[in-house]
Amino acid sequence: MKLVYYGPALSGKTTNLIALHERAGKDSRGRLMTLETKNDRTLFFDLLPLTFRSQGGDVRLRIKLFTVPGQPIHASTRKLVLQGADGVALIADSRLSELENNAASFLDLRDNLKANGSDITKTPLVIQFNKRDLPEIRSDEELRKMANRGKEPVFTAVARDGIGVLETFVALLHLTWSTLDAVHGLGQKLRVDGRALIADSARQLNAAVDIEEMLGKRLGGSFEPVGNGQRDSAASFRAAASSSPNLGGPGAPATRGPSTPRSQGGA
Ligand SMILES: Nc1nc2c(ncn2[C@@H]2O[C@H](COP(=O)(O)OP(=O)(O)OP(=O)(O)O)[C@@H](O)[C@H]2O)c(=O)[nH]1
Ligand SMILES: [Mg+2]
Description:
- The protein has helices spanning 13-23, 75-82, 99-115, 140-149, 165-184, 186-190, 194-204, 211-215, 235-242; strands spanning 2-6, 46-53, 60-67, 87-93, 125-130, 154-156.
- The chain is of the alpha/beta class.
- The chain has one domain (2-242): Rossmann fold, CATH 3.40.50.300.
């Protein structure tokens, strides 16, 4: 499975991967590859290989987890990294000042999927609002209302402290598996109980609670397989976009605001 963490510059994509790497058991994690400038901005991409085993040990689920570089200048790299993605997590920055950058990143994602011959309405997508520890952020209530309008599972996080990281990842894994299963009949072909495999994977990430509890932490959205044409993809995100005149609803050009300076030392 290829999973991609997408989002605007400095939203915390690399930080999510670092937290997952720390969390994963030694048998499950491969080497975390990052390539950053000296002020921690991803230059090309990050890659974390993960391997989860079913309880009997007869099935292995191999995951390649990528981040894209969020800075506007890396547009072509984002498109390249996105190729062949089975599922995407959009890591958004909760700060009010970042509304426009989040929406621009969503539109950039939609355009790049299209350019790659894919479609955002058929791509498993999970949204994370990161940096909940900072002041001047969008309230939980506001995010919840927005999340309830869309189908994508929405989570909150403080990735730097490892909060919400596992929930987002397990949700993406679950939604992606369900979608691949619905399209290709994976479970039947491989004789795998998908639900059990996701639960086994969560255990190998040292999850403290069961997957129902983790998935239940979402602010809204569902885990119905994607691609039946019924999904109003990222309605929640578009709603965010349309609440500001500059954010561009559907069809607006994918403009990007200037990136904000990094305020924290990187990990
Ligand atoms: N306060 C706070 N800072 C965070 C959080 N998550 C990440 N950061 C910080 O935000 C900065 C950017 O994080 P990165 O993970 O490098 O961001 P990125 O999305 O990979 O950025 P690009 O690679 O440029 O696209 C770093 O200084 C992190 O320590 C969080 O939850 N709260
Ligand atoms: Mg990065």
